[in-house]
Amino acid sequence: MIDDKDDAMIVRSTIDLTHNLGLNTVAEGVETAETLKALETMVCDLAQGYLISRPLSADDLLSYLQADEWSVYANETV
């Protein structure tokens, strides 16, 4: 998507279509800050991937949700 305008157009079109259907978008496999920034520019709703976190156990996930800088729950008690 970063290096290919056609790929970027497909991603943008998918996000637009999803929003037109009243749904939220989730980008999977986000591995670089550059990709995350591009997705933010395209108004992608959510993202997941190694940039944000490697796979976690249930206990580690709870700690992550309570403390991680990426988490929308960082300042809340889960």
Provide an overview of this structure.
- There is one protein chain.
- Helices cover 45% and strands 5% of the residues.
- It has helices spanning 5-20, 33-41, 58-67, and strands at 26-27, 46-47.
- Strand 1, helix 2 (33-41) and strand 2 form a beta-alpha-beta unit.
- The chain is globular, with a radius of gyration of 14 Å.
- The termini are far apart.
Task: Describe how the helices and strands are arranged.
Layout (H helix, E strand, L loop, with lengths): L4 H16 L5 E2 L5 H9 L4 E2 L10 H10 L11
Short description:
Helix content is 45%, strand content 5%. The protein is mostly helical and 78 residues long. It folds into two domains: 5-47; 54-78, no CATH class.
Characteristic terms for this protein:
single chain, 78 residues, mainly alpha, 2 domains, two-stranded parallel sheet, 3 helices, 2 strands, 5% strand
Q: Helix- and strand-based class?
A: mainly alpha
Please tell me the total number of domains: 2
- The percent range for strand residues is 5-15%
Q: Which strand order spans the largest sheet, edge to edge or round the barrel?
A: 1-2
Mean pLDDT across residues: 88
Q: Number of helix segments?
A: 3
> Which stretches are poorly predicted, pLDDT < 50 over at least 5 residues?
none
The count of strands amounts to 2
